[in-house]
What we know:
The protein has 614 residues and is an alpha/beta fold. 29% of the residues lie in helices and 19% in strands. It has helices spanning 25-30, 60-66, 89-101, 149-157, 165-168, 173-176, 187-190, 204-210, 215-226, 237-246, 249-257, 261-268, 323-333, 343-346, 410-413, 419-426, 444-449, 502-513, 516-531, 573-577, 597-613, and strands at 10-11, 14-15, 50-53, 78-85, 107-110, 122-127, 130-135, 180-185, 194-199, 363-366, 369-376, 383-389, 392-403, 431-440, 451-456, 463-465, 485-491, 544-554, 584-586.
Amino acid sequence: MKDKVTRRDFLNGTQVAIGASLLSPWTDVFGADAAKFALGKDYYPPAKTGLRGSHDGSWETMHARVSGATWSRGAPEEDVDLVVVGGGISGLSAAHFYRQQNPDARILVLDNHDDFGGHAKRNEFQVGGETHIGYGGTESIDTPSGYTDVSRQLLADIGVNLERFYDYFDQDLYDSLDLSYAIAYDSETYGKRKTVRGYGARPWEEFVADTPMSDKAKADLLRAFTAKVDYLPGMTRDEKIGLLSKISYRTYLRDYVKVDEQVLEMYQRWGMSYWCVGMDEVPAIYILGYTDGGGLPGLQYTVERKGGRGSEPYIFHFPDGNASVARLLVRKLIPDALPGETMEDSVTARLDYSKLDQDGADLKIRLNSTVVDAAHTPGGNAVDVTYVHSGDAHTVRAKHCVLACYNSAIPYICGELPEAQKKDLAYNVKIPLTYTKVMIPHWRWFADLGTRYVFYTNDFFKQVELDYPVTMGGYTFGTSPDEPMVLHMCYVPYFDDIQGPEQWRAGRRKLLETPFSTFEYHVKDQLDQALSGAGFDPDRDITAITVNRWAHGYSYSPDLLWEPEYASEADKPWVKGRQPFGRITIANSDSNASADTNTAISQAYRAVQDIKKS
Ligand SMILES: Cc1cc2nc3c(=O)[nH]c(=O)nc-3n(C[C@H](O)[C@H](O)[C@H](O)COP(=O)(O)OP(=O)(O)OC[C@H]3O[C@@H](n4cnc5c(N)ncnc54)[C@H](O)[C@@H]3O)c2cc1C
């Protein structure tokens, strides 16, 4: 297919007729009737396609700051009780907790993006007069039984009723259609491109026989799944766990299960969308709890499988992912902004962005505003926060400031922090990844091929998968394969010659340099590989593409092989980094080095409690 992908027929992600008119950049960003900060009635970022996530216009100011640019701290134009830097789930939660404790407080939330929610972003597509919703980042409320009391209470306070998802999420749909996982083998490793369906669903003998692997690799893969062999004989369970915690899954497969190189390559990128490193950096122990997608071989008869999500299903998913958590938080903070009263009616409710930043309101969410400086006033009774909006610097004075932005940005924003604390904050290298959504007119191709998810052994996108079947409120998931579908494709920059956090720094640079046309090319090419056998034509059958580019994506993960052991919790760099500094406290999921919504909320609560200490 590679040669077939030549035509550029997507403009900002949506297939367009030549001659379609374009909005002017200013109108595009601020809406038609923009005042100084207020957003117009027609301002609606979820409907944008093309390069989203860390969209152009959101990151340049902060990068200039990192490169040494400064803006003078002007006379304060506003006076508030609290400024929150960052309008992600943590920043919005911090505003909520602070207002709970200070009901009359005046609060300003500042975020550099054109939409609130941080990684929790909503994508919308229009097809045949209907709106289709996708998740641009934060996918699900994962394992809510593990949430802290504070997080669970916040979810309840904003109207999230977790039990209802058992009705809304159709757990049987894809099984009832006999849809399973497929592996798309690459030509570089296996001699030819071939997509083999039924991974984990067909007998392994059958599946393995269909692969383009060498005879030795086929035999090894079959053995690794089916032979009742303990590959760590003579060891107690604790000894096995100890060893598997110190070696990578790749090492385990190579040195203990002794499989062929082609089998190692088949699994090398398996965890890229989760751990965002190759399997040579993921402790083998984690594979014990990883049963998704048909499971991984080699451990079945060596150690008893425990862990993972246990009996809690992965169903706590709004159609826009946890963007709904952010939207419900906004409804709690500014009720007029999101009509309705329940989590169900919020799904299709159109958020009125013009209500976010209204003159005279006690709580304002100001978008397109990058904070470049936060400094205590002489005497230390307040914090002056300077931000850049539409190219101009503005300063707001606050009694307190919660930094709910990325840890790595804080040293550049808060120059007065002690150097040791800056170093601890800089330890958190965020992980780059993209969630690309592809709107297609129906998913009959997947149904005909018996596939719900394709894993690519070595290609640009690691996977393509069908959307989660969730019907709630006025939103109906098209359970018939003849209905439109929002596909999910995940790309994580991969380097086979760089390990450790350095690969994420390199990946961030690579992501920012990758144009939309590259994503478009690979979307078409990889869907062609997976689906052309069922008649899919990538030039005809893609309606729109939205690339949610998260150059600063998941929070740093301290769970990988290279992480040193710390003498105590207090010694961990992210724990030292989040200490309050005068009237400035630190929230965000980075402050506990854990990429999850529970952490974002719990750390917001802790940061608001820290204010009392300041
Ligand atoms: C692709 C993806 C998928 C994920 N899926 C899940 C999932 O399924 N379940 C789950 O629990 N978690 C998931 N996570 C993790 C989860 O999204 C995060 O832990 C959580 O949403 C982080 O919220 P936050 O507010 O701490 O940070 P963020 O969402 O990063 O929000 C911080 C905000 O601060 C802004 N900011 C930064 N610097 C400045 C500045 N100088 N001035 C103004 N604003 C600034 C940022 O741009 C951002 O908007 C996912 C993350 C990603 C990237």
